[in-house]
Amino acid sequence: MAHTGQTGQTDQTMRRVLRREIAGTIGLLTDEHDFRAMRRYRSFTFHDHAVYLRQVEALLQARAAQGTHTTVALFDPEEYADFCTAAGLDADAPATRARFTAELAAHGPTVPYDGQPLADLLPALVDEAVRQAIWEYTSTLLATLGGCATCGEDLGRAAFTRAHRLLHRVLETAPPGSRHLVCSVKGHPEETLVSVLLVEEESDGTPHIDEAEALEFTSVLALGLATHSPGGLVMRVSPPTGPDRIHGWRLRGYGLEPLTAAEVFDAYCTDIESGDLISPEPNVDYCAPPDLGDDHLPPGHHH
């Protein structure tokens, strides 16, 4: 009998060890609107969004204390309903929600939980969802551009290669320091695509770039180049010492046209909605950008 008890204890210990090695995903309803949409299901028993968020945070903390890794996914009720319809599953069942969350872990926007407050995790998750949506949108548009009527080259792929080269030159020629880049491209009919890329500089001067952010940023720039849409690129450089420097380019044709220092100043010191002047930031220099050396294509054929 003692032997059986020891075996049972050993099994329990082994299961506890294995449980710590199983990664989990929690589908999170980030806003009140989505939360209300899920309340139509009888099996979803929460009644207050604030209480729901506190319970989620407590669960995340408990799993982290046990050494268990958890990924948080953005749970979209509309996508969930579509998923249930397509798969022929009962939407009013916890098992179905768990299955959908597993799909999110593989393909949807997710953020790892590292012990950060939920107030910090929520905007990071929403940003990741926006980033993924922009990437999917721009990729789809670039893929539908087809081939060049003159040379047959795939226009979307060529634009992406061109954008990647331009971004590399922008970063390569930038002054030392952390760099905050914003690319905006006028879409159709009236929407504007905006992508942000933060490039931190390591102590040895090596740039640290988030690959997902860089991919999205490049795709937005590529779409602007391929469609010759109005747009621009702004870079703010924060050096180790001295004032921040702000540089800018406008999308022109198939390249980037540098803005003068006065144009950069006007762009930053004018209210977009009212057109009124805004006081310039202290300790900031508005500058013409470094020469990219490749901001315009050489004479001859280009897309």
Protein model, in words:
By secondary structure, this protein is an alpha+beta fold. It has two domains: 2-115, no CATH class; 155-286, no CATH class. 46% of the residues lie in helices and 19% in strands. It has nine helices and ten strands. The strands form two sheets. Strands 4, 5, 6, 7, 8, 9 and 10 form a seven-stranded mixed β-sheet that branches. Strands 1-2-3 form a three-stranded mixed β-sheet. Helix 6 crosses helix 7. The chain starts with a helix and ends in a 17-residue tail after the last strand. The relative contact order is 0.09. Mean pLDDT is 85; it is low at 295-301.
What can be said about this structure in brief?
The chain has 303 residues and is an alpha+beta fold. 46% of the residues lie in helices and 19% in strands.
Tags for this model:
7-stranded mixed beta sheet; 2 domains; alpha+beta; 9 helices; 303 residues; 3-stranded mixed beta sheet
Uncertain ranges? 295-301
Number of helices in the DSSP assignment? 9
Structural class: alpha+beta
Mean pLDDT: 85
Q: In total, how many domains does the architecture comprise? A: 2
Topology as H/E string?
HEHHEHHEHHEEEHEEEHE
Q: Can you summarize the main beta sheet?
A: 7 strands, mixed
Shape: globular
Indicate the percent of residues in helices.
40-55%
Ends apart, CA distance between termini? 81 Å
Q: If you compute it from the alpha carbons, what radius of gyration comes out, rounded to the nearest whole angstrom?
A: 25 Å
The fraction of residues assigned to DSSP E strands is 15-25%
Q: Would you count the extended β strands for me?
A: 10
